[in-house]
From TrEMBL:
Residues 1-23 form the signal peptide. PANTHER family: ALIPHATIC SULFONATES-BINDING PROTEIN-RELATED, TAURINE-BINDING PERIPLASMIC PROTEIN. InterPro entries: ABC_SsuA_sub-bd, NrtA/CpmA_ABC-bd_dom. The keyword Membrane applies. This is NitT/TauT family transport system substrate-binding protein. GO terms for molecular function: ATPase-coupled transmembrane transporter activity. SUPFAM superfamilies: Periplasmic binding protein-like II. Keywords: Cell inner membrane, Cell membrane, Membrane, Signal, Transport. It comes from Streptomyces griseomycini. Pfam families: NMT1_2 (PF13379). It comes from the Bacteria. Gene3D superfamilies: Periplasmic binding protein-like II (3.40.190.10).
Amino acid sequence: MPATTALRRALAVLVALPLLALAGCGYGSQAKDRGAAKIAPGAKKTDGLDSVTIGYFGNVTHATALVGNRKGFFQKALGATEARYAVFNAGPSEIEALNSGSVDIGWIGPSPAINGYTKADGKNLRIVGGSASGGVKLVVNPEKIKSVEDVEGRRIATPQLGNTQDVAFLDWAAGRGWRIDPLSGKGDVTLVRSDNKVTPNAFRSGSVDGAWVPEPTASQLVAEGGRVLLDEASLWPGRKFVTTNIIVSQKFLEEHPKAVEAVLKASVETNRWIEAHPDEAKAAANEQIEVDAGKALPANVLDPAWESLQVTDDPLAATLAAQADHAVEAGLLDDPDLEGIYDLTLLNKILKAEGEPAVDDAGLGVG
């Protein structure tokens, strides 16, 4: 068989198709149900539902969900319908929960959404809104790497074979003329696929010379003495690229559009509040991280991580399409059919009512 086909099949076996998955917190952990939220007296149910379960990750890249939970925006929007929360450490497990119906709507990275959508032949989810942009950096050991040219010949960590940051590094390296075998990671630069939870230890021990990683791992490496050599935002038009989206089960969207609209309205309201109260929002997010992950982030990690992220209602659809293209060009993904992955109808309805401009689906919306 052709070499590219063999490579893609090998990758499918090795990673079970978590290609492009956003590795903000690692993989394989189970969701934790956060229990009931307070409901205001006299409130009415939305769409007649007893509850809506919202999924997200317990880290800063899911700031809207963290703050919306902590400050009660979602519960307020849903009225007497209980807002329940399920916190994940892995994109694939959140997609599984969405597919099984145990999660109705969720915050997730673009790549698990791509994988989930393509694996289900476009029948399981829709991206209905945006949430965050940015927050990915190349952090290096300044004693070993003083310039971009010094990256050649070094050992650079990425979170996982074929994940979003892995693909981004391969695309960037290819643009510099460096050759790297995408499967083995060997070449002009050696890629070390390392879970974000262990990468700081690998960096501290010297077994890797740098890492292309999302927040808060990037800021953790800086706290260990690393230096930011490159902010991925500098590679994108307007310094914006999708980090976190809002997805919903197609079944839930069809049957309960009022509930989806309520959650989206709360998301937009939360983002406005975050922008207006950045310090208070950062504190609220960290309080919820402590509840969800068991430990708050220290200030020397939280502050720069928070600064590098931008909340946004716009799903930045063109950048999701570009990320998929980069994976195809790297030989890590067959050209996916993403038509219909977006349905921004409800979000644009909300934005119009707020006097805000509509957001674009880059031609990948429902027909």
